[in-house]
Amino acid sequence: MNSLYGAGVALVTPFNADGSIDFDGLSNLIEYQIDSGMDYLVSMGTTGEVATLTKEEKKSILDFTADQVAGRVPLVAGFGGNNTAELIGQLKDFNHPAYQAILSVSPYYNKPTQEGIYQHYKAVAQATELPIILYNVPGRTGSMITVDTIIRLANDFSNIIGVKEASANFEHFTRIMANKPEHFLLISGDDALTLPMMSLGAVGVITVVGNAFPSQTQRLVKYCNEWRYEAARKLHYELLHIDDLCFVEGNPAGVKEMLQELGICKNYVRLPLVGVSQETKQKIALAVSTLTVKE
User: Which residues bind pyruvate (predicted)?
Assistant: First the structure.
């Protein structure tokens, strides 16, 4: 899956003031990503506020994104959930030829055992022929996919081809790299940890910050893949404050505020999320202006 080496972006879903989907804003965002050199796009990941979207809205966004991209970069579709049977039905109905892979978050809230997580992903793998990227984000799901479960899934199912890791656990990352099959990809799911994870062998990132700063994120990953770590470190430290501001009041409220500052799309989110505070808006405006001048 060479198309998943590099920087992929988990696209936000732009909204209008009335809560409807802002397709003009989504078009602007997609063009901004492609023009800035982003390697691939992820539609309907958790950053896209997928939990607040209807089935019809999700389909319209996936279709619109595919039409807008028109084959210019690879596409990944987000499909996850804590109702395995419902998720399998969604995957069996999904046959869009524009998408090269599936990103599937580990079941949340239920707190399944490791055997439950294994059986969930077994069912997912058997429901689609598309390559699958596991998504381990225990801070949101309430449960960790252990190294043993990740390696077991990687060995047992040829279409489980990688994991997006957002556990912030370096022993965990190291043991994945030490035990994984050769073909299996480790992908950073945490912008602030992309550089150190890539030094361990990760092939890239699925980024949030890259919504607002795609060229810098893509170059950081490129430098790491080329072992140009001095240049990568410089970019890493330039982006560190932006990373913090993206998440200080929740994702994607922070990065949507940045996108509004940049004139890409509006900053509206759907409840239960709310926009960032006035104090954070001021900090974001200053940080965006500073980093844009540096660029």
Answer: 47, 206
Dist CA 252 CA 46 (whole Å):
9
Look at residue 216 in the predicted model and tell me its pLDDT. Answer: 97
Q: How far apart are CA 267 and CA 177, in angstroms?
A: 38
Q: Residue 128, Cα to own-chain centre: how many angstroms?
A: 20
Number of neighbours of residue 89 by Cβ within 10 angstroms: 12
pLDDT, residue 276, reads: 98
Give the residue numbers marked as catalytic. 135, 164
Q: 75: helix, coil or strand?
A: strand
Domain range annotation of the chain: 2-226
Phi first, then psi, for residue 212 (nearest 5°) are: -90, -35
**Residue 168 · residue 190 · CB < 8 Å:** yes
Asked if residue 206 belongs to a known ligand binding site, the reply is yes
Residue 132 has pLDDT above 90, yes or no: yes
Instruction: Say if residues 202 and 184 touch (Cβ distance below 8 Å).
Output: no
Look at residues 293, 104, 105, 101 and name the one whose alpha carbon lies nearest to residue 213. Answer: 293
Pick the CATH number of 2-226 from 3.20.20.70, 1.10.3720.10, 3.40.630.30, 3.30.499.10: 3.20.20.70
pLDDT of residue 1: 65
284 marked as part of a ligand binding site: no
